[in-house]
Amino acid sequence: MNSTEPGDGRVGGTVDLGPPRPTLTEAITIKLRTPAKLRNLELLLLVFAIGITGAAVVLVQLGAIGEIDTTVLIYGAGLGMLALGMHVVLRITAPDADPFILPIVVTLNGLGVAMIYRLDLAEGLEGWESAGIRQMVWTAIAMAIALAVLLVVRNHRVLARYRYVAMLVGIGLLLLPMLPGIGQTINGARLWIQLGPFSFQPGEIGKIALAVFFAGYLVTARESLSMVGRSFLGMRFPRGKDLGPILIVWLAAMAVLVFQRDLGTSLLYFGLFLVMIYVATSRLSWVLLGLGLFVSGALIASQTLSYVNARFAAWLGAFDPENYDAIGGSYQLVQGLFGLANGGLIGTGLGQGRPNIVPLAESDFIIASLGEELGLVGLFAILGLYLLFVARGFRIGFNGTDDFGRLLAVGLAFVIALQVFVVIGGVTRVIPLTGLTTPFLAAGGSSLVANWIIAALLLRLSDTVRHQPRLVVTDDE
Amino acid sequence: MSELTLLLLRIGFLILMWSFVFAIVYALRSDLFGTKVRRLPVAASAAAPVAVAAPVAPVTVAGSGPARRLVITSGAKEGLELPLEGDQLTIGRSADSGLVIRDDYTSTHHARLMLWDGTWMIQDLDSTNGTLLSGKKVGAPTAVPLNTPVSIGTTTFELRR
């Protein structure tokens, strides 16, 4: 092939070959980078996102107190400054990161802050008493930690090296609330630790550590988990001795269910493992096996554990007066449903509904509050934002250059998706109500910090994906 | 503040939220819906790989290990090469791909090269015009021997050590 060098023609000077073309022997590597384009798109969407937050706070004030005061500046401008700061750091440290993640997260966070502020107005809380101010402070802390993650983790492959450390950290954080002294039981679930004036839910951070561990472990173990086994009913089932990991994770999830008394967290950890093992091995039999294990475990728990039994009863017979009047019964769930029904299609308008009737309207039931005041149309816009966020996470995983990064991106995106499903499914009575938080929206520091770290890791992963050597072949030259 | 103004403001806010959602979807349109791909003329798809395949006999080069570079042997950027790092390279029209081929016949996410146990495998990602490995359409992931032409759209490349 190299015998006809285009150079031969040029030396003779008689044959016109047009513009000189690179020869086969010439090694040209083009590293194409378009950082400014991506970041400018992000800036544009970010201005939009801050505008939505500001508009939400203004509407809350108009609806609830009939006038606009300076609090708008604390919430709207405060969040705006934080988001723009994050954007500037991204320009420097991760110029090729995905441009949609930050605007989506800022919008969700801002809508959450506006709704929490609205509930503060209804309760008459001010200053440090108000959950809205505390949520803003937590947002600032969460963004600072997300920035630290972006600055420290310059290459996600480093995380794969620390997979067993991640496992120990994950299990340690999970067990921390069981320690006497700092462990604390709130609303029946033992998920919190109390350090001085702060209470924190270490399991929220634990889920990230476990996602890192699962990704690191499955990259090395997936061959044996996917290749061998016997066929049954058209599917290849794993060997008995390969069942170890899934049984250990199942036992851990059941332990959370029994000792920490929390159905949602247990479902989250186990669901995360199932999805990651499915993505790593592409064997549907793992999913069937896992679902079978979890459903049977949950059914046994619903018969034997009184709190799970009560949750199931409140879910199936929410409108029974017996469940409605019971302590810890379906009162909250039913009030949330009434709120959603009151909102109807386009909602009562921000600041004009009565979402504060529902207990825990600012944390567990923030979706019911938003649904009441923004209606079905607004709720679907929020679900659309979650959908886009998760789709970006899966896309980052799909385009990843190494197995660990791909599994980690899918796992982290799925954690968000599963939380949204479990919380909104619980509030709308699709599944039994559990104690997970709505990512980015709900009041609560630990969940905000954990989910911002997930966003930071996805930004870092997307930056590495686009930073790979690339070659662009265009036709139109 | 009259009832009517508040009603208009609240409808306006819902429109604002949805326009944000649609602004993102619009920016992502090629990623979500793909770009329009033309069918490759039958004659071209049949003739191109044969012409390239004829002079090339699969040469076994001394030494071991997987291919380390990808060389474009025909098409708009003939002669360019790309080092193969990592264990996967995505090929397609989307800007996220490792090898971006922008012609009318390449799908958004067209194919990918994967390193499995020291061998590069090519997998077609359900593209409109398919991926040809020495003239044959690729279905399931197939091993790519060294110096064997792979055609995507109007571009042909080979893997070399």
Mean pLDDT of chain A: 83
Average predicted confidence as pLDDT of chain B: 80
Biggest β-sheet description of chain A: 3 strands, antiparallel
Distance between the termini of chain A: 24 Å
Number of helices of chain A: 17
Number of strands of chain B: 11
Span of the ends, CA to CA of chain B: 74 Å
Percentage of residues assigned to helices of chain B? 25-40%
Strand order of the largest sheet of chain B: 2-1-11-10-7-8
In short:
The complex is a heterodimer of chains A (477) and B (161). Chain A is mostly helical. Chain A contains 17 helices and six strands.
Describe the 3D structure:
In chain A, 66% of the residues lie in helices and 5% in strands. Chain A has helices at 6-12, 35-64, 71-93, 101-123, 131-152, 157-161, 163-175, 202-227, 244-260, 263-281, 284-304, 306-316, 321-325, 331-343, 366-398, 403-427, 445-467; strands at 183-186, 189-195, 198-200, 230-232, 235-237, 471-474. The radius of gyration of chain A is 26 Å and the shape is globular. Residues 1-20 and 22-35 of chain A have low confidence and may be disordered. Chain B is 26% helix and 29% strand. In chain B, 37% of the residues are buried. Chains A and B meet through helix 2, helix 4, helix 15 and strand 6 of A and helix 1, strand 1, strand 2, strand 3 and strand 4 of B. Strand 6 of chain A pairs parallel with strand 4 of chain B.
